[in-house]
C-alpha cells in the first residue's frame, strides 16, 4: 500500500497515546506534516520539557517539578486527612473543584486482574508508611467509581481499618447537571441508597 | 489554581492538534509525564522526522519524502485521469481502497467563505496547468460531500468544462455497511436519484 514512511512512523507513535485511535493518529500525523515548522518545534520542546522536568513527588507520588510537590509542601493544608486517587490527573480535578484542603496520595492505577495490576504494583506501601508515621485521622478513598476502583478501595479500606483509621469513600449518585434518563442502573441504585431528606 | 507548568504548556500544544479537545490534551500530557523516557524520545524523533523529511510533491501537492511523489513517478498509472481531493490524507483513503489507478491533485482545502478560504487560496492554478500541459481525458472531483466541497467542485467544474474536459463527481448515496435509519435527507435524496436497476 502507498504510504509515506515518516508519517506512518508518527501515526504509530501517536496511536500509543491514551484515547487516540488510528483515525485520530492519522489526522494528527498529517496535520504535523502540513503545519508550520514553528508549531512542530514548540510541540517537540513541550514534550521534551515534560520528559526532563516533571518527576514524581517522593511523598504523595503525584507529578511535580519540585520534590516534595507544592501541595505536600503547603503548610496551610490539613495534614491529618489524605485523599487517595488512582492517577496524578485526579488531583488536578480535585484542586479545580477547590473543596478539599487535605493531602493526596497517588496509587498509580487500580487493582485489575484483567490488566495484570496487583496490589503490589500500586503505591499502597507508601500510603501505609504515611499513615504509620503521621497523625492521620481520615483517609478518603477516591479511586474511580468502577469495578477496579471499587475493588481497590475495598482492599485498602481493609488494611487501614486494621489500624483504626476512619476510611471514607466518595459519595456515588447522579452526576450534577446530568440527565436522569441517561443514568445507568448502578448509578441510580447508589443515588437511591444515598438519598437525603429535603 | 494548582498546576505543573511544563504539563500545562504541553496540554496547550496538544490542544492545537486537530480533533483534540482540552480533556484529550490533558490525558495525553499526563500520559507523557508518566510514560517511559524511551517513548517520549521516540515520539519527539517521529515528529522531527516528519517535520524535516516530509515535503510537498511539486506536481500533485501531496505530502511525500521524494519529489515527485511515488504516485506521480509511477509509470504504470493512467496519466490521463486526475482525481482532485482536498487534503493529502484523502489520497491515502483512495489508495487503501485500491480501485483508482490514475493520478491525484491536492487542492489544500475547499472554498469556504466562513473560513475565509477563497479559490486563490487553493492549488487550482496547478490543476489548470496540469490540464493544459498534459493529455487529460477526465477529472474526477472528489472534494468532500459537504457544502464547501460541493461549492469547490462546482467552481472547478466550470473552469474545466470551458476546456472541454470530462468532469465527474464521486457518486453520493448511502454508505455501505450503514444503517438506513441514520441516513439524513440529503444523502437519501442522492441515493434515490442515483438508484440502479437490480
TrEMBL record, chains A, B:
Keywords: DNA damage, DNA recombination, DNA repair, Metal-binding, Zinc, Zinc-finger
Protein species of origin: Aerophobetes bacterium
Domain Toprim: 80-175
Cross-referenced Gene3D superfamilies: 3.30.60.80, 3.40.1360.10, 6.10.250.240, RecR Domain 1
Name the record gives this protein: Recombination protein RecR
Family the UniProt entry places it in: Belongs to the RecR family.
Gene: recR
CDD domains: TOPRIM_recR
Residue intervals of every C4-type zinc finger in the record: 57-72
The protein's role, per its UniProt record: May play a role in DNA repair. It seems to be involved in an RecBC-independent recombinational process of DNA repair. It may act with RecF and RecO.
